[in-house]
Amino acid sequence: MSSLSIPVNRALDVICLGRAGVDLYAHEENVDMEDVSGFDKHVGGSPANIAVALSKLGAKVGLISCVSDDSLGRYVCSYLKSLDVDLTGMKIDDTGSRTSLAITEMKADDCEVVIYRNNAADLSLSIEQIDKSYIAQAKMLLVSGTALSTSPSREAALSAIRYARETDTVVVLDVDYRAYSWRSPEDSSLYYQLAASLSDVVIGNREEFDVMELLYKNINEETARDDDKTAAHYLQGATQVVIMKAGEYGSKVYTQDGKKFEQGIFPVDVKKPFGAGDSFAGALMFFLLQGAALEESVKMGAASAAINVSRKSCTDAMPTRQELADFIHSYETA
Amino acid sequence: MSSLSIPVNRALDVICLGRAGVDLYAHEENVDMEDVSGFDKHVGGSPANIAVALSKLGAKVGLISCVSDDSLGRYVCSYLKSLDVDLTGMKIDDTGSRTSLAITEMKADDCEVVIYRNNAADLSLSIEQIDKSYIAQAKMLLVSGTALSTSPSREAALSAIRYARETDTVVVLDVDYRAYSWRSPEDSSLYYQLAASLSDVVIGNREEFDVMELLYKNINEETARDDDKTAAHYLQGATQVVIMKAGEYGSKVYTQDGKKFEQGIFPVDVKKPFGAGDSFAGALMFFLLQGAALEESVKMGAASAAINVSRKSCTDAMPTRQELADFIHSYETA
Amino acid sequence: MSSLSIPVNRALDVICLGRAGVDLYAHEENVDMEDVSGFDKHVGGSPANIAVALSKLGAKVGLISCVSDDSLGRYVCSYLKSLDVDLTGMKIDDTGSRTSLAITEMKADDCEVVIYRNNAADLSLSIEQIDKSYIAQAKMLLVSGTALSTSPSREAALSAIRYARETDTVVVLDVDYRAYSWRSPEDSSLYYQLAASLSDVVIGNREEFDVMELLYKNINEETARDDDKTAAHYLQGATQVVIMKAGEYGSKVYTQDGKKFEQGIFPVDVKKPFGAGDSFAGALMFFLLQGAALEESVKMGAASAAINVSRKSCTDAMPTRQELADFIHSYETA
Amino acid sequence: MSSLSIPVNRALDVICLGRAGVDLYAHEENVDMEDVSGFDKHVGGSPANIAVALSKLGAKVGLISCVSDDSLGRYVCSYLKSLDVDLTGMKIDDTGSRTSLAITEMKADDCEVVIYRNNAADLSLSIEQIDKSYIAQAKMLLVSGTALSTSPSREAALSAIRYARETDTVVVLDVDYRAYSWRSPEDSSLYYQLAASLSDVVIGNREEFDVMELLYKNINEETARDDDKTAAHYLQGATQVVIMKAGEYGSKVYTQDGKKFEQGIFPVDVKKPFGAGDSFAGALMFFLLQGAALEESVKMGAASAAINVSRKSCTDAMPTRQELADFIHSYETA
Lengths: 334, 334, 334, 334
What we know:
Four copies of one chain form a homotetramer.
Chain A: E1 12-17, E2 21-29, E3 38-44, H1 46-57, E4 61-68, H2 71-82, E5 90-93, E6 100-106, E7 113-116, H3 132-135, E8 138-144, H4 153-166, E9 170-174, H5 185-197, E10 201-205, H6 206-212, H7 217-223, H8 227-234, E11 241-245, E12 251-255, E13 260-263, H9 276-289, H10 294-309, H11 321-332
Parallel strand pairs in A: 1-4, 1-8, 2-6, 4-5, 8-9, 9-10, 10-11
Antiparallel strand pairs in A: 2-3, 6-7, 11-12, 12-13
C-alpha cells in the first residue's frame, strides 16, 4: 500500500532532528506546583524521545540537535550515549543559549508545564552545522516541526530535508506544533507546507493540520475539518503517506494511491498526558524499516504509544521490541 | 520555444515585489564623495525600477512594497502613482523603519554606494500583508531575491510565490543578490533554491548562480562555472527558463526543453554602472506578455538595458515602447 | 560609630529590590549532575533571600521584583506571601520572560550551578513600575547590584535609589556581581560607582570591589587589593559604611568618620557554599533597624550567616530571632 | 558671578562628545519633499556643529564620536579635519552601523526632517573607547544629551563625564532631547538628572527641562513651568550655571549663588529653523574660556546664534571671531 522506497545498506536507520532537553516531573501526583516538593529528572524533547524509542527497539539512530555547554547539556548527551544514540550531529553551544527545559506538574487535568526556551540551544542550530554526507548515511530523516519555528534552526531543518531528498533518505515530518515558538500562525502555515511538500510521510493531529492549512483560505473553507480532503491536499508530489492522529479516537492513515485505513487505540490505564506521539512515531518508523506493511507499522505505533502512557516517565517508558511483542500478544489473547 | 503559459484577462500585467526607495546621485561626475556638493533625488530599488520600466512600456503594473511614513515615503509613492503604478499592495510603516536609501558617487570606476538599510521599511513586509486575491489579478509576479534575505519579508515573498503558483500567475525570480542583507551565504543558497524551484523564469548573473549553488557542493565542483550544467540543474519542475546575464558579454538563455541561445549587448556610451538589469527584466517581461517569442523578448531586454545605461538616471531613463522601437530601428539600419 | 539616620514611623522596615526565583537543589549530595535523580524546590535569588531573612527575624519587608505569569511565578509569590513579605511591588509578566531559575549540584567542591536567565522576568522590571510613594514607606531600601546589569531593570534600580535619597530612605547596596549579566566589566564599574555614590551602605567582597574600581585605573594601581584605600575611596558623599566580606576570613567594616573594625566568622559545619551573604545582609539590616550598634549588627550578620550555611536549604535556613539568640548564647558559653 | 573654575595649560580647549553626521538640505526653498529635485551636502549633528563653531572662533577643539567606514564617514572626517578639529577620539565603525543622516526640506513652516538613525554609528560608541587621559587634556567637555539615549553610547557619555569630574575638566551638558532615541520619557528623565548633577553648566529649553523633571512629580506640580524653581532645583552640588533657552524670547541664566539675568535675541532675517542652539553653545563656551564674564559670554552666544540662522547652511554658517565682532559692532551702532 505504501510506496515508500527505503534505501538499504546505510550505517544509520534514522536520524532525528530537533530539540533534546531536560524534563522535570513533579514528585507528587495531582498536586499544584506551589505544593510540589521537587522534581524527577528525565531527558525529553520530542525528537530525542523518538530517537530513544527507536534505539530501545533496536534501531541504529542518530540525533542532530544542540545543548548548552554545562552539566545539564552533558547529562542529556551522556543519557543518549548510554542508549547508543549517535551524537555526531550534536552541537555543544557555549554562547549563552540554554538546553531546552520543561518543568511539569503531574496532574490528570489542567496539568501546567512551564517551558524554559528563551534562547534555546536547539534553536541555535544553523545550516552550517548540517552535514550532507551524514544525512546520506541514514535510511530515514525524522524532522520535528518545532525546529522550523525560528531562524537559524529553520534553515538547518530545511537544508537537512533537501539533503535527504537529494540522497534518497526518506523524510518523515512530525508536525509537533508549538504556537509560542512562532512569530505568527501564517508563518507556521507557510513553512509547514514547504516542509510537507518535501516529505514522504507527514504525521500530525487535526489541530496541527488546521494550522498548516491557514494560508489556503479557500481550501480551508471547503475542507473545514474534513480529514479526507485535508489528506488529499497533501498527498501530492513527494508525499506518500499522511497520518492524522486523533488521540483517543486513534489515527486515520492515507496514502497517495488513494487508500485509507483507521487504527484504534489500545486501552490502558493512562499515567500521564504525553509521550504517546513520540512513542507512536518511533515504533511506526522502526517497523517500516523492518519491511512491515504500513498497517502493521501503524498498529505497532499505537501499541507502543499505549505502553508509554501507561508508565510514569517518557524516555524511560519507551518499550523494547520484546515488551512490544508481549503487549500485543497479551492484548490479542485477552 | 518557451512553454510559459501566461494567463489572459487579468486586471494587471505584472506585480513586482520587493524594495522601493530613494536613490541620491552625486551632482558631480567622477568626483569623490568628499568633494561632491550634493545629490539629485530619484526613485530606486530594483523591483520599483522594473515596475517603472514596465509601466513606461505600457504595461499595467502593481508594486508590493513598504516605505516609511514620512516625506520620503510619500515621495516614492507619489512618483510611482504618477507613472500609473498600482499601489494597492504598498504598506506605509510608522514603527521606526526607514525607506531604503542609496547615496552614490557617479564615477566610472570604484564608484562607491552607501546604503542605508538598517531596519529597512521594505524588509518589514510580512506574510499577513500579502493578499492572495491581489496576486491572482496579475499575469506575472516578479520577485526580487533581496526580499528573501530576512524575516518577515522572506515569508511575504515566499507566500506570494506560492499564491502565484496556486493561481497560475507566472513567477519570475530576479536573483538580485546583496550579500550584506543575508545572515550567511548558506542561507542565501537555501532560499534561492527554494524560490527558484517554484519560479517559471530565473534571471541572474554567474556570481549569483554561484551563491545559489553553494549548498550543492558536489554539483558545484562538477559544474564550477559551467553555465550549461548550472542551467540544467535549475530547469526542472516548475522552472521553464533560465537566463544567465554576463554584463558586456550579453546573456545566455536556456529552456526546459533543452534549447539554448545567446544574446549580445547593444554597444552604447555607458553613463552609469547600474539600471541595466532592471531595464532588461522589464522589457523582457513586457514582450513575453505581448506574446513575443523568447528570443525577441530577450533582444528587447538587451536593447532596453542599453538605452538605460546610456542615460544618466535610472527610473527616468527607462525607455517608452516608441523609444525602444526607434533604438532597434536605428541600430538595425546602422 | 555609624552615622546612619534611619527614619521612624514607616509602614515597612525594608524594601528589597531585584530578582526572586526558583532554586532547584540536587537530591543527592556529592554526586555529579548526570547522576542526580532529581531536585528539591526552593525559592531563591539574593534579594528574595534577604527579604525572607528579614521577615523571619521579625521585620516588615517588601520585595520589588518580577516573576512570569505561570505556576512557578505563582509558587514564588505564594511562598513569599506565606512569610508575610509584602508583594505590592511584584510585577507578573506575561510577555514571554521567565522566572529566574538556578539548578544546582550539591557538592563541596566544583559545585556547578546552571542558571536559566535568558529573558529573565526580574530584568524586565522598568522605571515605570517603580512607585516613589512606596519607596517612601520604607526605612531602608536594599538593592541587589544584579538589578543594575541590563536595561530596563537598570533604570528601575537607579530610579528606586534616587527616590530613596529624596525620601530619606536609607540605601544599602549589595554588590552581588554576576559577570554573565553585564555587557562589559567597564559598564559594571560605571554603574556600581554611580549606585555606590548614592548609597549609605555598600556591601561586597574583594573581587566585587575590584570590578567596581576597574575604571579608576590610576587608583587601581595604587590600591591594588588594599582594602583600606578601596574603602576610603567609597566613603565620600552619601556613603557612610563600607563592608568588605572575605569569606572564611570574616569581614572588614569601615565608616566615613575613619573608623574600622573586623568581624570573624562563627565556625560551623558547612553544608552548602551559598546563602551566607544574604543571611548576613538580612541580619545586619535587622539589627541596625533595632538601633543596635554597627559592631553588634555585623556580629549578628556573621552569626546568621553561620547558621544558614550549616543548614541544607537557603531561604528555609534563615534563622528566627530566637534561633539567632540561642546560637550566640551557645557560642559564647561554649 | 559664575564660579566656574576652568583649568589652564591644557592642549585642548573643548572636547565635544556625541553625534557627527551628514545633513542633506533641499535645493529648493519652500517646496515639499515630493517636488524637491535634490539636496546640498553638509556636515551636521549638534556636537559636530558646536565643535565647528568653536574651531571657527579660534578654539582648539576635539570631537569624540563615531562614523561608518564608508565614503560618507570619510567625508565627515575630512571636513572636520579641514577645520582643525582633533579626531583622536573619532571611531570608524565597520560592523554595519551608518553615519547619522538627516534629510530636510527648507521650509519656513512645517519643515519635515527625515532622520536615518537606525543603528546609528555614533550610538555604537562604548565606554571602552573613552580615554581618561584624553579627557584630561581638555579644559571643557561638551556632552550632547542624545548620546545618553541608548547603550552603549550612554555609558560612553556617562564615563566621559565622570572622567571629566575626576580631572577637573569643566562639564557642559546640552540637553539636546530627541524623543525618538529613548525607550521612555522616564528613562530620559533619570539619565538627564544623573548627568545634570555631574555637570557644571546645563543648557536646555523649557520643554527639555519638563522632560528632565518628569520623575519629580511633586516638584513638577509645584514648579509647573516655573523657570525659577526649575533652575533652583538643578543648581545644587556640581551645577553652577543653568541656561534656559526660549527661542525668540531669548534666554534666562541662573547661577548657584542665586543670581539671574536674561538675554534677548538679536533680530535678523531667519533663513532656517536650526543651528541657533549649536552656534549659541559654541560662542558661549569660547568666551567663557577667554575669561569673559558669564553675561558677556551669553550675549556673544546670542549674537552667534543670530548670525547662524541668518545664513543658509549650518556648520558653514558658524561665524569667525571677526564676523562676530563686526556683527556686534554694527548692531550696537545701529
